[in-house]
Amino acid sequence: MKKLVSMILILVMALMSIPALAETEAYGGIEGTIYWIGKMYEGDGWMAITDGAKLAAEEMGLDVSFTYPEGGELDVAGQINLVENAINNGAAAICVAPNDSNALVAVCQQVVDAGIPLIMYDTALADPSLQTCFISYDFYKQGVMAADALNEHFDGAEIKVAVINATAGNEAHMNREHGFTDTIAEKYPNITLVGEVLYCDNDSVTAMNQATDLMSANPDLDAIYACNSMAVEGVAPAVLAQGNTVAVVSCDTSDAIVQAIKDGTIVFTSTCAASAIGYLSIVAAAKVLAGEELTDIEWNGQTFPLDTETMTYDSGVYGIDADVVNDESMTYLFRPLTWFDTYEGWEW
């Protein structure tokens, strides 16, 4: 645990102490509009990703259009329409976090056919050959970390765990699910999965009802793994209402998740440098439009390496538990929006 805290502290102090690089100021002459298409504008994580992108656009003097499908992460058709509109409006570049990795392949092929640079972020496209580059973090690793943390919490004892995921068509959510279930199957014969994986359609009320039903039908249930913020924000209060007799492991952070960790309901979650994902997506688009070769990107004292084989930037994954949330120096990691409250000149 001390090693985990030390690694996080290094990241946090880097984010807090060093201003954005002046190199971003050289891109104000780029013509045209970059269309930045998100999954949704809800939850601290997605708001931080968006704010990171807006900060980069402001610093670089770029014209960026920020849009989101009206129905959020479940609105695949709406997101496809946004990409089509960007193409028709003559976008200089398009940045997309796909709500469905397979369903967006066809419209992303249209982007490439139109000669428009395509920057994917957060979630990969099913056909990676279409994307100019990809900015994200390891969702599968989050599932692995959750399984490891669960086993450690119970000291390797025999336990039963259920899984509540968000959506079945979202690559990020499925990787989190498979990272967890694969790790249990490969490493932990002492952990038994109860029933089928449930999907809450990214709705916290549905997740709450599913968790309540699971605990009623399985009085010997020891734990629930919730794969994203919307799922765990429903699972945690359901478990709390039952007296915290079931341990919860999850992914993502928010004020509600942090409080549930402090209450002892959630024993572990994980997160990324959310603002960096948004920031890097705009910087990458600008570099491509300026005719530059993509290389490692530095921001706020941290280097985000480019895997030149897959053209992927990794923002990293960080574990969060009671030791971390009770350390005020870690606030900038588990409450990502607070970083912008202290950033000099930030007015979004």
Automatic annotation (TrEMBL):
The positions making up the signal sequence are 1-22
Task: Name where it mostly resides.
Answer: other
Q: Provide the Periplasmic binding protein domain boundaries.
A: 37-293
Spell out the molecular function terms from Gene Ontology.
carbohydrate binding
- Which cellular compartments is it found in? Cell envelope
Keywords attached to this Swiss-Prot or TrEMBL record, sorted alphabetically, are: Signal
Pfam families, per the entry: Peripla_BP_4 (PF13407)
Top-level lineage group: Bacteria
Query: GO CC: one term?
Result: cell envelope
Q: What is this protein called?
A: Substrate-binding domain-containing protein
Q: Which family does it belong to?
A: Belongs to the bacterial solute-binding protein 2 family.
- Is the keyword Signal in the record? yes
- Keyword Signal included in the entry's annotation: yes
Q: Which Gene3D superfamilies match?
A: 3.40.50.2300
Record's InterPro entries? Peripla_BP_I, SBP_2_dom
